[in-house]
Every structure is written in C-alpha cells, then in structure tokens.
Amino acid sequence: PFDVLVVGGGPAGAAAAIYAARKGIRTGVVAERFGGQVLDTMGIENFISVPHTEGPKLVAQLEQHVKDYEVDVMNVQAAVKLKPANGDGLHHIELASGASVKAKTVILSTGARWRQMGVPGEDEYRNKGVAYCPHCDGPLFKGKRTAVIGGGNSGVEAAIDLAGIVRHVTLIEFDSQLRADAVLQAKLRSLPNVTIITSAMTTQVLGDGHKVTALVYKNRETGEEHTVELEGIFVQIGLVPNTEWLGGSIAMTNRGEIEVDAHNATSLDGVFAAGDCTTVPFKQIVIAMGEGAKASLAAFDYLIRH
Ligand code: FAD
After folding, report:
1. Contact partners, residue 222, CB within 8 Å, separation at least 6
2. Which residue intervals define the domain FAD/NAD(P)-binding in the entry (predicted)?
3. With contact defined as beta carbons under 8 Å apart, do 274 and 292 qualify?
4. What is the C-alpha to C-alpha distance for residues 170 and 149, in angstroms, rounded to an integer?
C-alpha cells in the first residue's frame, strides 16, 4: 500500500506528491489527465516569480519535478470510488479500469471545471477572447470591450473587477434579474462603464477566425436577437468541482466542494483534500500548489501519529 495516494494531477496534486516524496514515504498519484486545467491555459502571468509562462510548458515542468522523485504516477486513470478504511487503516481507491489502490492516507485534488455556455463559437474561440478567469485574463483586455456572462455573485464580481481594467463591460444575465448580493449589485450599477442586460440568452460567439469580434444574444421576452461587438467574453456561470465520484463518502457543501479545515483534513480520518475541489477560497494555481503542500505535510503529520 501507499503511505500517501494523491488523486488528481493538477498543480495541487503535483505539489502534494513532491512534498510527500521528499519525506521518503511511498507516494502514488492517480490522474485522469496529468496537468489538469493548466493544460488548457495559454498565458499564465500570475505564477509568482515566473513573469510569463504557458500552460503546457508549466505542466511539463510539473511532470519533470514530480519525476525527479520516486513517485508512482498512474496517468490516464480515473478514480471512480473511495472506500473508507474499515479496521485495517487502509483506504481503497477504485479506478475505472477495475483496479483498486490502497493507501494509509489519501489526498483528494481532483480540481474543478468551468461550466460552459455550450453555444457555437465558444470552443473555437477559447483563449482567443473567450475566457473563464478574470483574475487570470482580465489584464489581457485592458482598454478593450468585454462581456461577462452570468449575473450571480461571481459574474457581478468579475464585472466590477473588469470595469477597472477594460474600456466597457456588458453583463448578460439569463434571468429577469441579477442573482448577486444586493451590495455587489449596487456597486456594479454605480460604475459608469457597465451595461446590464437581463432576460438575455447568449446564442453565439462570433469571430474573424483568429479572435472574438462579437457575441449574439436573444432577448427572451421579445425573441429579438442582438449583436454586441467586443473583444472578450468572460463566462461566469459556475465552477463545478470534480467530486461527483465521491458520492456520499465525504462531507461536501451543497455545491460539491469538499469541506476542509486549516490543515486540509476532510471529514474522513486520514483523507485530506487540496485545491479547486475544496472549499478553499479563490481558485488559482499558486493557491492550489500551496494547498497541496499543506495537505501533504498534514498527511505526513497524521502518519507519524498512527
Ligand atoms: P486541476 O488543475 O483541475 O487538476 C485536477 C486534476 O485531477 C487533473 O489531473 C484531473 O485530470 C484530475 N482528476 C479529476 N477527476 C479525477 C478522477 N475522478 N480521478 C482521477 N483524477 C481526476 N490560475 C492561475 O493561477 N493563473 C492563470 O492564469 C489561470 N488561467 C486559467 C485558465 C483557464 C482556461 C482555466 C480553466 C483555469 C485557469 N486558472 C488559472 C485556474 C487554475 O488552472 C486552477 O486553479 C488550478 O489548475 C487548480 O489546480 P488543482 O490541482 O486544484 O485542479
């Protein structure tokens, strides 16, 4: 059995694996797709001490760093079930292949995925104007016209954030009213360079083959279609944690985030969690890595006491 089995191979999982291996304990990583969301990222400019890098390059470096240690990496393997230890102190992680991996401690770092609009043009122009993370990509649209899709808290926060950087923000909400907290809505409405459009369904992302040029939405009351010319579209309709596979085995919020304490412990003894799949506030690479390191040190601490 492993001393530490990390489930997930994004920044949180890579950091957890390196910290565990450096303690000289038996460490394994199960990852459906090593690299996680970073693989889908173009420019990264907020990974502190590295002014600019690209997703695939950072993933190659993460992989190399992990391989510098004795870590058993099981890539392209999805975990489908967590069977908590009963009596023997070993948790079982069942894989889609049918295999089962045993470990004294488990670190869950299965990350999250942005909910997509599912409209024509969205995939084609991802990273070419279609973006999901205002903290990451906001500055790329300095002085340009953007839209935010979604009028919940994250959409309205994104619009307020962007309004300070970009020329103009159009906020598009499907419902007849915004769903964000009143204080955020008041702040948003006080900004001179924001237009709010409700009862609007985005139907298409338009581009010139290289980058986004406009979005099309339908007024849900009149059925009329409108085109908004712009350079950037931030989709803020939800970040979904990859935790469905855990079923009811562990305490989660109603949004599916694994509940963790300051030591990354979950509700299950010997099971820790880190990164975007948890309740940690703010989902970023530098944060996920710090959380992975923390979870690993906590797992080590657990092992020396058991
Ligand atoms: P992830 O990166 O989501 O990794 C999860 C890992 O778990 C993957 O290996 C996945 O395959 C695996 N996994 C999932 N389910 C299972 C399962 N059942 N079994 C086994 N393995 C599983 N952050 C920044 O700081 N700066 C940026 O510029 C930036 N830009 C971004 C751009 C885009 C397009 C996106 C999508 C995100 C961006 N982010 C950025 C956010 C950042 O990528 C995430 O916060 C970070 O990757 C989270 O790391 P993580 O390890 O928690 O999860």
Report:
1. none
2. 2-292
3. yes
4. 8
Q: CA dist 1 to 9, 10, 72, 186, Å?
A: 19, 23, 12, 55
Q: How far is the CA of 227 from the centre of ligand 1 (A)?
A: 32
**Which are the contacts of 210, defined by CB distance < 8 A and separation ≥ 6?**
128
Cα(7) to centroid of ligand 1, in Å? 13
Given a contact cutoff of 8 angstroms between Cβ atoms, the answer to whether 215 and 233 are in contact is yes
C-beta atoms surrounding 299 within 10 Å: 31
Task: Ligand 1: list residues with CB < 6 Å.
Answer: 7-13, 30-34, 36-38, 40-41, 44, 46, 78-79, 109-112, 114, 132-133, 136, 242, 245, 275-276, 283-286, 288
Binned at pLDDT 50, 70 and 90, residue 42 comes out as confident
**Rg of the chain (C-alpha set):** 21
**Residue from 5, 6, 33, 41 to probe ligand 1 pocket by mutation (most atoms less than 8 Å from CB):** 41
Tens digits of residue pLDDT in 229-249: 999 999 999 999 999 999 999
CA of 176 to the centre of ligand 1 (A): 33
Find the mean pLDDT for residues 199-221. 98
**Residues 289, 292, 298, 304, CA torsion sign:** negative
Mean pLDDT of the chain: 97
Condensed to tens digits (0 to 9), the pLDDT of residues 246-288 reads: 999 999 999 999 999 999 999 999 999 999 999 999 999 999 9
Separation of CA 276 and ligand 1 centre (Å): 7
Contact 221, 138 (CB under 8 A): no
